[in-house]
Specification:
Length: 506
């Protein structure tokens, strides 16, 4: 059945520059989670075409690597301009295809713009070190060179931003990009391709065709990408299960990976915390994006002396929150991506109950006119302990609450899960905050004080430890992952002194 939004999606795609033939008459049906109806039918990339496409992208890289970095930055600057001009349309399309509320759909496009700005500046700063040589008349330095084709595998939950994080950096670094988006969100991927093509057209003749390539379809395409020897770097975002499949395959051919896998992010709420602030931060982090961010807050670890107060306030917030159509102002929780996500949520809640958990919310919400969408009220679950189900990442809006007595115990609980992406502490006590951020504190790639674990900005490196995969993307020096480093020693003397005092007289 066609979605009530099929026409709107059609018009947005055309306006964004996607030819109608690309999203009609194809073999992969696309659904809007808002009402479950169809909004497009895209054409799967034939498996046999993956290798030729990668080879074409590789050739594009060979030309692109000769273009000076600042000129490469100009492409990304133009792309950022296209994104600014089309923010409203692309943000709306994200909401229609993914179901996140409009403000978050627009926020995702803003995140793309932010990484473009960051990458443009970076295009003039891809510099290495000058190193003191122990030998007279010798200069030592390191240089950073383009790497090759970067394979990007992304998930449904950030259907456009994660590609942009990777692409903006890869493009200024002189790489080509082959992107395998989630099969569930190909329309926004097509729109990104069209906007980059607009930028490329304005860029000029030195834009090599096939610098950015899209693979639309099922996981077999991603596997072909992962296995291809001409893809020196695979940057993959998704489940830990996916990462465990990808990592050994890339390692077997001695390629590189940047992995952004599951999160099971916790927030510790201390007795000194500003509870008004903490409740708002926890609500956004746990409920926002319907619990479908890898940085979503999934566990709150609260001091026993304030647990009743915090849980009471959270339960009231949970009960009052508006679940509904993500396009409507006032809605804070849109639909889950599909029925399987809702089933996973039900299963987890049943397990939590069996473990002695007290569940607030979590029930299905029927939306008149959108019966095909999977809407749920977010769940807050008071747990007697951090049981097995709490240690798992269920990609749905479930927040488990456990209590603690000492900060040491709280940090141990926070770290006692396989994942290590993001974390927070709510405290006004300097000692507690600094202990949490210290070597003996949070074991996550992101550790925050008095803000939630989600909604990271572009300037910082994004990623996490343990089952999260260890990769870092977007800010800080993440660009180095997209380049190869060469150490250069130049002898400008007439002699040939050897390092370490080695003597080797002929
Ligand atoms: C993700 O959920 O895959 O920090 C990425 C955040 C966003 C990115 C999340 N900036 O929540």
């Amino acid at each position: 059945m066609a979605s009530a939004y099929a026409v709107a999606v059609h018009d947005l795609l055309v306006h964004l520059g996607v030819p109608e033939s690309a999203f009609t008459g194809g073999d992969i049906t696309v659904h809007s989670p808002i009402d479950g109806g169809t909004i497009g039918a895209v054409h799967a990339t034939p498996l046999a075409e993956v290798a030729p496409l990668i080879e074409r992208a590789h050739r594009a890289h060979l030309a692109w690597r000769q273009i000076p970095g600042p000129r490469r930055g100009e492409l990304v600057r133009l792309f950022g301009e296209e994104l600014r001009a089309h923010k409203a349309d692309l943000g709306r399309l994200v909401t229609l295809e993914n179901g996140k509320i409009l403000s978050e759909g627009l926020g995702e496009v803003q995140e793309m713009i932010d990484i473009c700005d960051f990458a443009v500046g970076l295009s003039r700063q891809l510099h290495g070190l000058t190193i003191a040589s122990e030998r007279p008349g010798h200069a030592m330095r390191e240089t950073w060179h383009p790497l090759g084709v970067v394979g990007v595998i992304s998930a449904f939950n950030f259907p456009v931003a994660v590609w942009a994080w990777n692409s903006a950096l890869a493009l200024v670094c002189g790489d080509a990009v082959v992107w395998k988006p989630s099969e569930i969100t190909p329309l926004t991927a097509l729109a990104c391709g069209a906007l980059l093509a607009k930028a490329a057209q304005r860029f000029g003749d030195d834009y090599p065709t096939d610098l950015s390539v899209l693979l639309i379809g099922a996981s077999a395409l991603g596997e072909a990408l992962v296995d291809h020897p001409q893809v020196p770097l695979i940057s993959a975002t998704g489940s830990t299960r996916m990462g465990r499949l990808v990592a050994p395959k890339v390692a077997a051919r001695l390629g590189r990976t940047i992995l952004e896998l599951g999160g099971n992010n916790a927030g510790i709420v201390c007795p000194s915390a500003d509870l008004d602030l903490a409740v708002r931060a926890i609500a956004f982090a746990a409920i926002g994006t319907a619990g479908q961010r890898c940085t979503t807050l999934r566990r709150v670890i609260v001091h026993e002396s304030i647990a009743a107060d915090l849980i009471g306030r959270l339960a009231a917030a949970y009960a009052s929150i508006r679940v509904g159509n993500p396009l409507e102002a006032g809605t804070l929780v849109g639909p889950l991506i599909h029925g399987a996500a809702q089933e996973a949520m039900e299963t987890a809640l049943a397990r939590a109950k069996a473990d002695g958990g007290i569940v607030h919310g979590g029930e299905r919400v029927m939306l008149p006119g959108s019966e095909g969408g999977c809407y749920v009220r977010p769940a807050l679950v008071e747990m007697p302990a951090q049981t097995a189900v709490v240690a798992e990442e269920t990609f749905a809006p479930i927040l488990y609450a456990v209590t603690y007595r000492s900060l040491e115990e709280a940090i141990a609980l926070q770290n006692a899960v396989p994942q290590g992406l993001s974390s927070s502490i709510f405290t006004n006590d300097l000692r507690e905050a600094e202990t949490f951020l210290s070597a003996a504190g949070s074991d996550c790639g992101i550790a925050n004080v008095n803000i939630g674990p989600s909604g990271a900005e572009i300037g910082g490196a994004f990623g996490g430890e343990k089952d999260t995969g260890g990769g870092r993307e977007s800010g800080s020096d993440a660009w180095k992952g997209y380049m190869r480093r060469a150490t250069n020693t130049v002898n400008y003397s007439g002699a040939l002194p050897l390092a370490q005092g080695v003597s080797f007289e002929l």
